[in-house]
Amino acid sequence: MHPGAKNPHKPGTKVLLAMSGGVDSSLAAALLQDQGYDVVGVFMRLGSPGDTLDTPLTPSACDTTKLKIGKQGCCSVGDAADARLVAAHLGIPFYVCNFKNDFDRIIDYFVDEYAAGRTPNPCVRCNDWLKFGKLHDYAKQLGATLVASGHYARVLPHAPLGGEGRGEGSASSSSPSFSLLRGIDHTKDQSYVLFGIPRAQLASMLLPIGRLRKSETRAMAEQRGLPVFDKPDSQEICFVPDNDYAGLLERRRPSLATPGAILDTDGNTIGEHPGAHHYTIGQRRGLNAAFGRPVYVVAKDADANTVTVGDRDDLLASGCLAAEANWLVDHHDFVDWTPCFAQIRYNASAVPAHVRVIPDLDAPTPSGRTAALEVRFDLPQAAVAPGQAVVIYSHTNPDHVLAGAWIARATPLRRSPASPLAAANA
Length: 426
Fold this sequence. Notes:
Blueprint: E1 14-18, H1 23-34, E2 38-45, E3 58-59, H2 77-90, E4 94-98, H3 100-115, H4 122-141, E5 146-148, E6 153-158, E7 177-182, E8 205-206, H5 214-223, H6 245-252, E9 260-263, E10 269-273, E11 296-301, E12 306-310, E13 316-327, E14 338-343, E15 351-358, E16 372-382, E17 389-394, E18 400-412, H7 420-424
Parallel strand pairs: 1-2, 1-5, 2-4, 5-8, 9-12
Antiparallel strand pairs: 3-4, 6-7, 7-18, 9-10, 11-12, 13-16, 13-18, 14-15, 14-17, 15-16, 17-18
Helix pairs in contact: 1-2, 1-5, 3-4
C-alpha cells in the first residue's frame, strides 16, 4: 500500500508491527498510524552470545542493567532501547517478545548446515520461523488481525491474470488473492528473504515502506522527528560476534575444527585445510595454499572432510534441484518447464531460467515442507551453493515472487577431459 493511501481495512484495525529499532520499521509504524491503524509495536528479543535474558511475553520496561546481549545485528540492547524510544515518540503500545529459546533453533540450523557442507542463510529462516511465524501467533494473543514489518517488499491484491499458465492466479478462482512483490527500490529489495512466508499469511501482512526508496525513508523519518532517522543499517548476522562465524561453529561443534585435504577437480590432494567450515562455494581467498593462478572452492564433502578447488569454469552450473519449496501461486501450473527469473543469492541479480515442479522429497526437512522444484538456467551460473535459497520470479512480471526453495544440489556443466588446474598439478 502506498504511504499516502487510505486504510483498506476498518478504521482502528489492530496491526502488530515488528520493530527492530531501525529507521525502516520505525517509519513503518508512523505510516501505519497515519493510515488509521491501531499500531502495536513489538521487539523480538532473539538473543546472541552472552545473552542471559529470560523474560516472559510482557510489556517491556527495558531494564538494560539486566541485559547482556551482543552489540550488533537487529536484537541488541541499543536496538531494544531505540525501538522503545520510537514507540514512545509515536504514543503506541510497545511489547518485547522473548524468542530466545526459539532462536536457538536458528543457531542449531546454522551449525547443522555448515556441518553438512552447505552454506546456510539464517536470516531467511528467521523470517520464516519467527518474524512471520511465531509473531503471527503472538498477534492473535493481542487481538491483532494484521502483522507488519519494515521490509522493502510489497504485498498487493491481484485478480486472476493468467500469466505463466495459470501461475499468476488461478483462472478458476473469481476472488482476489495476494502477491508478494519486490520493493520499488530494487537496490534494497528484500523479497528474496521473505519467500518462505506461507501463502495464506499474505492476506494479513502489511509492508508499508515497500513503495519507498531508502533515501525517501530516511527523509520522511527525519520530517516526523523519529530519533533513528540517520541510524546505520545492520549488516551482520546478529548471533555471530565480530563476524567470526567459524569461531561460533567450533564452540558449538568442536569436531568441525578437523584438518582435511584440499583436492583438485581430479581428486588429487594438493593442500590441507583447517576445517571445511572455513570455506564456501565460490570462495577465492584464504585457501591456505599457493596455486600460482586464481582458483575457487568448487565443492565440499562433509563426510570425507575435503574441499575441492578448481578454475572458474568448474563453478558453472546449468541448474539446480531445490527442496522445501514454498509456492505463493498455484504450483500445479508449473509441472512443465515454465519461463521465469531465478535468484540464487540475496545480493545476486535474478537471471532468465525455467522452473518446474518435481516430486516431493521423502527426507525430513528443517521446515517440514516436502515440496521440491528444479531450475534450469538459460545461461550457466557460477557458485550455485547448496544451502542457499533460490527464489523464483515471474517471467511476465519480474517483480512478482512465485516461489522459493533451498538449493539441495547444483547441476554442473559437463567438464572437459582435462582441467587446466589438474594439468598444472599433474
